[in-house]
């Protein structure tokens, strides 16, 4: 292998990418299936002269990130579902105070302690904000270890650009799998205009204040409208996706992450066997949801099949995007269940044979 | 005799580190005094340009308005975690939190304990007024046994609510802690002692010796339903006996021995 190609576990790729993106502060708390990331950072951050803190809880970790980001640093944390629930406090505060940060949710099965199998059941939590208040976070959904790496570097850029938290919604399979990847060159982190608001070294300037409290009548509404305009801009400019074999497809799959990986193999297998002409819109951003491209194909009369490892969460966004112009079907798994290639092909054939939408859940498969 | 303006020497005024915004605290409240002591210490030690304050959630939520250096407002109880992120990212800065007792000893107990235990180079100004002021006088973890509040209307019953938490006693054996002192601000003599303690805590941070915390027993006339004058006496009569004043840990003293 050439020098810049290495074999890496997904969780470690996130860590290495963060360091190369100029992340100087990481705080985390152990939870499976993201432990390799915290472990990687505990060793490699100090080695690179950066700060690592094993926090007393996820609540503390995200609030440490809040403090670090307030100084203008690129800061990050990571966890899995139960810990991400705890981090929502800090994420909401960071949105309110317009502080950038990057965090990863390597999703496991829920609700509650659930299990440690891969899942996509934190979709609503991620794409609807998750915590209290009127806000959004940028949600990125990689499907390979290379993409975990690339998207982590991108995530820091987007967070800084919009002064807002950005996150990866991965899962246990992506975090644990080992794949060869190309390491991108480290970026020379440029704090840019952060000096206009960040904390520290205040000699010779007005003081800087970072806050999410706006009690004076009207001020919070005004601030939230500012945030809203920002979110609108993100929604217009940052929709990302990948198209495979969509133009002549009888059924277009909509999927992300691990379910998109399986679906992509299903597309290839069905094309090869001549069973059914499948295509796939693989979502790379989950918020903003790539509604425009889905609408474009809906206008052309395409029929869709959502494949997800949650009980119809992402399905709702597909339905909203299609806005009744055509039908959307669903193949859902939950609690760590994975869709199988043949199952996807069989469901797609059912969709082709039916006049309306088809919904397939694990019970039905039994 | 006529005095010319040039003859006047300024002997007392607003510390440079305090902003000129009037504070919104009730008459007789201890929070404003605590701010003044911090500002004086920061000025005296020449730390203003490096100083970053962390406001918490409670009556002091707008502490950021009252100082004239950089400030960030933290979620309820999380100020020591926010301070940790700041200090680790900007080790040359001087970072302090200003927290009430509900904020620090209840919802933020874990953040307080663990930042102390890690020996974070931060200073915590802990205002203990034995009550939740901002939300209207509910029982705090520091509310005294028998004390009536809006959620302990018959008086705090330790069988139901446990005993008041003594924070300095809780932290004094942690290796990461460099300086711990409990003071009061209800009499001029106590204020003078408190000023020294606050200054010492900032010195200890500047020297990189570890975590420092000053617990300030503080009047909350409004929450206690007492006149400011009675509140001042109440501190001596009721709080000091349960919360003894003094230095609980001082690593510089050990070094001298
Ligand atoms: C997560 C959360 N829970 C509860 C509150 C409501 N709240 C605001 S201030 C406060 C207590 C403040 O009491 P204390 O820390 O003793 O400060 P004081 O007002 O007495 O100075 C509470 C419970 C909140 N803001 N956030
Ligand atoms: S309620 Fe108590 S703590 Fe709050 S400002 Fe009034 S006196 Fe101070």
The fraction of residues assigned to DSSP E strands of chain A is: 15-25%
* Shape type of chain B: globular
Total discrete domains of chain B: 1
Give the CA-CA distance, first to last residue of chain B.
54 Å
How many helices of chain B? 11
Helical content of chain A stands at: 40-55%
CATH superfamily of chain B: Thiamin diphosphate (ThDP)-binding fold, Pyr/PP domains
Instruction: Work out the oligomeric state of the chains in this entry.
Output: heterodimer
Structural class of chain A: alpha/beta
**What is the average per-residue confidence, as pLDDT of chain A, rounded to a whole number?**
96
Number of domains of chain A: 2
Radius of gyration of chain B: 18 Å
Instruction: Strand order, main sheet of chain B: write it out.
Output: 2-1-3-4-8-7-9
**Rg of chain A, Cα atoms, Å:** 21 Å
Q: CATH fold name of the largest domain in chain A, please?
A: Rossmann fold
Description of the molecule:
The complex is a heterodimer of chains A (366) and B (257). Chain A is 42% helix and 20% strand. Chain A is an alpha/beta fold. Chain A has 2 domains: 6-237, Thiamin diphosphate (ThDP)-binding fold, Pyr/PP domains (Rossmann fold, 3-Layer(aba) Sandwich), CATH 3.40.50; 243-360, Rossmann fold, CATH 3.40.50.920. In chain A, helix 4 links the parallel strand 4 and strand 5. Chain B has 257 residues and is of the alpha/beta class. Chain B contains 11 helices and 9 strands. Chain B has helices at residues 31-44, 63-66, 79-89, 101-107, 109-117, 158-161, 167-171, 188-206, 221-224, 228-242, 251-256; strands at 51-55, 70-73, 94-100, 123-128, 131-132, 138-139, 177-184, 211-217, 246-250. In chain B, the strands form 2 sheets. A 7-stranded mixed sheet of chain B has the order 2-1-3-4-8-7-9, with helices on both faces. In chain B, helix 1 (31-44) crosses helix 8 (188-206) and helix 4 packs across helix 5 (109-117). The radius of gyration of chain B is 18 Å and the shape is globular. Chain B starts with 30 loop residues before the first helix and ends with a helix. The model of chain B has no long low-confidence stretch (mean pLDDT 96). Chain A binds chain B through residues 24-25, 27, 51, 53, 55-57, 59-61, 63-71, 73, 75, 89-90, 93, 97, 199-203, 207-213, and chain B through 19, 48-52, 54-55, 61-62, 64-65, 67-75, 78, 81-90, 92-93, 110-111, 113-114, 118. Strand 9 (209-210) of chain A pairs parallel with strand 2 (70-73) of chain B, so a sheet runs across the interface. Iron/sulfur cluster binds at residues 25-26, 29, 31, 59, 129, 133-134, 220-223 of chain B.
């Amino acid at each position: 292998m050439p020098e810049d190609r290495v074999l890496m576990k997904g969780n470690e790729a996130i860590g290495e990418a963060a360091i190369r993106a100029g992340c100087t502060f990481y705080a985390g708390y152990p939870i499976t299936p993201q432990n390799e990331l915290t472990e990687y950072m505990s060793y490699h951050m100090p080695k690179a002269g950066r700060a690592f803190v094993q926090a007393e809880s996820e609540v503390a970790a995200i609030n440490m990130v809040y403090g670090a980001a307030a100084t203008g640093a690129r800061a990050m944390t990571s966890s899995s579902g139960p810990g991400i629930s705890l981090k929502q406090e800090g994420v909401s505060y960071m949105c309110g105070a317009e502080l950038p940060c990057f965090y990863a949710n390597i999703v496991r099965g829920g609700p509650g302690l659930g299990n440690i199998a891969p899942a996509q059941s934190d979709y609503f939590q991620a794409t609807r904000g998750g915590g209290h208040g009127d806000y959004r976070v940028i949600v990125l959904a990689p499907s390979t270890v290379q993409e975990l790496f690339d998207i982590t570097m991108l995530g820091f850029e987007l967070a800084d650009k919009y002064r807002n938290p950005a996150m990866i919604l991965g899962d246990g399979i992506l975090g644990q799998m080992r794949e060869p990847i190309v390491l991108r060159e480290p970026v020379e982190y440029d704090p840019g205009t952060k000096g206009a608001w960040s904390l520290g070294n205040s000699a010779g300037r007005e003081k800087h204040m970072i806050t999410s409290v706006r009690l004076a009548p009207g001020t919070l509404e005004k601030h939230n409208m500012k945030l809203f305009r920002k979110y609108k801009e993100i929604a217009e400019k940052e929709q990302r996706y990948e198209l495979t074999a969509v133009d002549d497809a009888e059924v277009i799959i909509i999927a992300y992450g691990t379910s998109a990986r399986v679906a992509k193999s299903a597309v290839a297998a069905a094309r090869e066997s001549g069973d059914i002409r499948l295509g796939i819109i693989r979502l790379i951003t989950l918020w903003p949801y790539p509604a425009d491209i889905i609408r474009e194909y809906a206008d052309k009369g395409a029929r869709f099949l959502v494949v997800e490892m949650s009980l119809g969460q992402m399905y709702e966004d597909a339905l909203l995007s299609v806005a009744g112009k055509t039908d959307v079907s669903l193949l859902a798994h939950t609690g760590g269940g994975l869709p199988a290639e043949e199952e996807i092909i069989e469901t797609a054939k059912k969709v082709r044979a039916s006049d309306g939408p088809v919904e397939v859940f694990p019970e039905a498969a039994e | 005799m006529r005095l010319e303006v040039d003859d006047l020497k300024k002997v007392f005024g607003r510390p440079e580190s305090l902003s000129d915004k009037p504070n919104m605290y009730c008459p007789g409240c201890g929070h404003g005094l605590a701010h003044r002591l911090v500002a004086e210490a920061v000025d005296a030690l020449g730390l203003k340009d490096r100083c970053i304050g962390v406001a918490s959630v409670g009556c002091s939520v707008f502490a950021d308005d009252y100082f004239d250096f950089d400030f960030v407002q933290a979620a309820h109880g999380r100020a020591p975690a926010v301070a940790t992120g700041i200090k680790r990212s900007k080790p040359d800065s001087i970072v302090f939190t200003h927290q009430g007792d509900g904020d620090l000893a209840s919802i933020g107990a874990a953040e307080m304990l663990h930042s102390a235990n890690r020996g974070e180079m931060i200073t915590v100004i802990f205002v203990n007024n034995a009550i939740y002021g901002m939300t209207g006088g509910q029982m705090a973890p520091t509310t005294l046994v028998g004390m009536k509040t809006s959620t302990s209307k018959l008086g705090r019953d330790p069988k139901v609510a446990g005993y008041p938490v003594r924070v300095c006693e809780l932290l004094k054996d942690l290796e990461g802690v460099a300086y711990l002192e409990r003071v009061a601000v209800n009499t001029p003599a106590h204020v003078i002692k408190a000023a020294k303690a606050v200054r010492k805590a900032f010195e200890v941070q500047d020297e990189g010796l570890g975590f420092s915390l000053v617990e300030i027993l503080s009047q909350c006339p409004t929450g206690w339903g007492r006149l400011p004058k009675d509140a001042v006496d109440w501190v001596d009569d009721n709080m000091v006996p349960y919360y003894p004043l003094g230095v609980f840990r001082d690593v510089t003293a050990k070094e001298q021995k």
